[in-house]
């Protein structure tokens, strides 16, 4: 599809410029705020790509409207759909791509008012960053055609061969700010709640193993070859699996999805079997809220459902509810038995919207 001059082409060119700028910044070792800049510009690239699609297909109707039918105006301009709404209205992205985008939208909101200058963040989410870019170009080509592909203009970023020593890493961890720790905790919680098949897909996070290519290769062979997992034969996949037994990208500690997890009713029933103090659902809600085990609307607007204490609780997105570990039952029974938790105590704290440090009550 060759676009003529107009709003669609302008939006598309702006989108591509944002994507190229994000890569340019990310690949500059000494550029300040590399990660924040990459994420911000890629969010803009995706937003303008989908707005270009809407402008091409439905015209200039991708704007919010008031109840009276007039366009919502912000600072004199019509308020266009943000990326989250664009994704919903577009409706053509697969689950892994949507999860990858949702991850970066949430992460962008987390770091918007923070200064994260630690290189570890970039290393930690490199796979998701690469997938964000990979997915963007795929969708760019799907919508507007191969002539708009931008991979020809990008080069593989040169890498130093040495990894940081264990002592350097440990020293860095000791200096981490509370804001940095919050971002790292968000990333870990989000990944823990991603379904295994989505996490394993290249559309959510690309895992790279950098191995020098040796042997009788042709003199004109490319120095770097990228292989799509979905295009590999079963035999080649088995060879890859053997390699990943040597280099592990992620240690999966969780069992099959939701096995052994408890619903709230089961938690209450198990606690009441072991404790003289009997709980009801209101009691359970009060305790969960004051210990910030899971979010509640009463304790703040726009609560993120994934913002749980994953030691005790996980958000089940498929069923839009929360599941609990056996150790949560043990926590409740232990504190009820010792008298550290009483109905008056947790109800008063809940009514006053006070939160407690759960670590002080862990035995």
Describe the structure.
With 363 residues, this protein is mainly α. The protein folds into 2 domains: 7-157 and 164-199, no CATH class; 264-361, no CATH class. The chain is 48% helix and 3% strand. The protein is built from 14 helices and 4 strands. It has helices at 7-26, 34-57, 83-90, 95-111, 119-124, 126-144, 166-174, 178-192, 196-199, 234-244, 264-274, 281-290, 326-338, 343-351; strands at 73-74, 77-78, 313-316, 321-324. A two-stranded antiparallel sheet has the order 1-2. Strand 3 (313-316) and strand 4 (321-324) form a beta hairpin. Helix 2 packs across helix 3, helix 2 packs across helix 4 and helix 12 (281-290) crosses helix 14. 24% of the residues are buried. Mean pLDDT is 80; it is low at 161-165 and 247-255.
Tell me the layout of helices and strands.
Elements: H1 7-26, H2 34-57, E1 73-74, E2 77-78, H3 83-90, H4 95-111, H5 119-124, H6 126-144, H7 166-174, H8 178-192, H9 196-199, H10 234-244, H11 264-274, H12 281-290, E3 313-316, E4 321-324, H13 326-338, H14 343-351
Antiparallel strand pairs: 1-2, 3-4
Helix pairs in contact: 1-2, 2-3, 2-4, 2-6, 4-6, 4-8, 11-13, 12-14
